[in-house]
Write a structure and sequence with these properties.
heterodimer, A: 111 residues, 6-stranded mixed sheet, 4-stranded antiparallel sheet, 12 strands, globular, B: 112 residues, mainly beta, 7-stranded mixed sheet
């Protein structure tokens, strides 16, 4: 069975610090997809990124970047120069034929 | 603006009541999902559906059932609500199992 582990339950940083959210997954399949979602205080989950198992290129989108390493089964998410608006719960998810989510990491960015 | 809507943001029910949670999407998505979200447990999949009248059990289907009579609507039913079903319920839809899911705002259900 697929499994996603987000070992960091809560992280607190001061604005402008860089922060990395860890995600480790388990799967027996060779074809799968990895996702990150953000859940701000308003509650609605927002999709951030999708990555397939054959594409190990890292991706950067503004202050966000993602590091996918199949060798360590990890798909980590880094926010550079964090801002208060980044405060949210972040979920990593794995999809083979249906989606399974990690427990989430609550990020608090203090001014 | 494409979206997933859920019938209620907050719901309070009594133990033993039959509860219906409705979810509607306007994106013509094939796939729809119901999750419950509890602190420290993340999102757990209750049921999902890949097509009209189709349903598949997720990780925690006990105490729940679903109905999908139309493509755009996916209902979650608690046949006899219990206090341990107090939770946040999230509905989502996607174009395919490997595509990102679009989530509704959630229904916070309290069973007294």
């Amino acid at each position: 069975a697929q499994k996603v582990t987000q070992a960091q339950t809560e992280i607190s940083v001061v604005e402008k610090e860089d922060v990395t959210l860890d995600c480790v997954y388990e799967t027996r399949d060779t074809t799968y997809y990895l996702f990150w979602y953000k859940q701000p205080p308003s509650g609605e989950l927002v999709f951030l990124i999708r990555r397939n198992s054959f594409d190990e290129q890292n991706e950067i989108s503004g202050r966000y970047s993602w590091n996918f390493q199949k060798s360590t089964s990890s798909f980590n998410f880094t926010i550079t120069a964090s801002q208060v608006v980044d405060s949210a719960v972040y979920f990593c998810a794995l999809s083979e034929d249906d989606m399974r989510f990690g427990a989430g990491t609550r990020l608090t960015v203090k001014p | 603006d494409v979206k997933v809507t859920q019938s209620s943001r907050y719901l309070v029910k009594r133990t033993g009541e039959k509860v219906f949670l409705e979810c509607v999407q306007d994106m013509d998505h094939e796939n729809m999902f119901w999750y419950r979200q509890d602190p420290g447990l993340g999102l757990r999949l209750i049921y999902f559906s890949y097509d009209v009248k189709m349903k598949e059990k997720g990780d925690i289907p006990e105490g729940y059932s679903v109905s999908r009579e139309k493509k755009e609507r996916f209902s979650l039913i608690l046949e006899s609500a219990s206090t341990n079903q107090t939770s946040m319920y999230l509905c989502a839809s996607s174009l395919s199992p490997f595509r990102e899911q679009v989530f509704g705002p959630g229904t916070r259900l309290t069973v007294l």
